[in-house]
Amino acid sequence: MSSLPLVFSAPKRGKPPRHFADLDAAGRVEAVTELGLPKFRANQLAKQYYGRLNADVDEMTDLPAAVREEVGAALFPELMSPIRHVSCDDDSTRKTLWRLHDGTLLESVLMRYPERNTLCISSQAGCGMACPFCATGQGGLDRNLSTAEIVDQVRSAARALRDGEVGEPGRLSNIVFMGMGEPLANYKRVVDAVRKITAPEPEGLGISARSVTVSTVGLAPAIRRLADEGIPVTLAVSLHTPDDELRNTLVPVNNRWTVQEVLDAARYYADTTGRRVSIEYALIRDVNDQPWRADLLGKKLRQALGSMVHVNLIPLNPTPGSQWDASPKDVEREFVRRVQAQGVSCTVRDTRGQEIAAACGQLAAEEN
């Protein structure tokens, strides 16, 4: 486990400062001309930030030294500073706790696999969805993240991988919006961030849209809206149970959009994008792991989505003091078997980082 010095300062709640990563191409040109710089500097800065992964103007050696301080203050303010890095799984998993400009806390997790490098990022500081088994949901919502606060999590991880800070040098290949927050509750900024993450360099970070997953607890209208954006990201729906009675408790937003309404929206997403939908299901001992729920889940998914669905069964990562616990392995295996027997693809997700409080929200809760 590695540690960074703690930085304590009085929180300055409010809107995050404008950052280069908040701006589109026209906005970048406007910003540099406001500073009295020629328009070509906008593209130069984009190559530095998105191409070379530099956010420190002192590293931008093609920028005149006389203007670096002014450009840094105007376009590259420090959005977040690392409080702590914790690693496990032979250093193949690293979680970072960040402190934002106003003192709020944020988490991201970098996971290295033989065939890919995946970053789990946050879209909000905290979460307002109030799912009782989730560490972030227990803490409530602090605020939405800005576009730049989302994008810079990705840039920072891509740079750390490139520079060999997390094992052998490598390339960031996959992004999952499965960290703190409900991505579709911060819709505009998340979509803007996705466009910047997936746009080719130097307009963005150049990560394939098909390698980006956006998760949601089931905001049905926003799922349909996302389908119409024309960005072929993977949609992951955190369902956790196939019946409304239990889901009203486990995922309180179900009181607004039922299981069937969520699955209908997921079908629209699959039909519109041609992408298979992922169903996330945290298996909780004696709560949602009964054989009849596995049968019902498989039946409903087959009827709603046919072959355009895959179930990711997630062994619950219990949080300290929680009443919830993971299901036994034999129960887990039987659940998978029953879902598959309904003709629905189902696998158990590889769990990472339990010994470093990798469930999103745990490090932030400890720090608070």
Protein model, in words:
- It is built from twelve helices and 13 strands.
- The protein has 368 residues and is of the alpha/beta class.
- It has two domains: 20-75, DNA polymerase, domain 1, CATH 1.10.150; 83-367, TIM Barrel, CATH 3.20.20.70.
- Strand 11 (277-283), helix 10 and strand 12 (309-315) form a beta-alpha-beta unit.
- Helix 7 (220-227) runs parallel beside helix 9 and helix 10 (291-305) runs parallel beside helix 11 (329-341).
- Mean pLDDT is 91; it is low at 1-12 and 355-359.
Mind sketching the topology for me?
Layout: E1 2-3, H1 25-34, H2 40-51, H3 65-75, E2 80-88, E3 93-100, E4 105-112, E5 117-120, E6 124-126, H4 135-139, E7 141-144, H5 147-162, E8 174-177, H6 187-198, E9 212-216, H7 220-227, E10 234-238, H8 244-250, H9 259-273, E11 277-283, H10 291-305, E12 309-315, H11 329-341, E13 345-348, H12 362-367
Parallel strand pairs: 5-8, 8-9, 9-10, 10-11, 11-12, 12-13
Antiparallel strand pairs: 1-2, 2-3, 3-4, 4-5, 6-7
Helix pairs in contact: 1-2, 5-6, 7-9, 9-10, 10-11
Top keywords for this entry?
368 residues, alpha/beta, DNA polymerase, domain 1, TIM Barrel, 11-stranded mixed sheet, two-stranded antiparallel sheet, disordered N terminus
Measured as a percent range, the helix fraction is 25-40%
Radius of gyration of CA atoms, rounded to a whole number: 21 Å
Going by helix content, strand content and strand pairing, the class is alpha/beta
Termini separation (Å)? Answer: 20 Å
Which quaternary structure do these chains form?
Answer: single chain
> How many β-strands, per DSSP?
13
CATH T-level topology of the largest domain = TIM Barrel
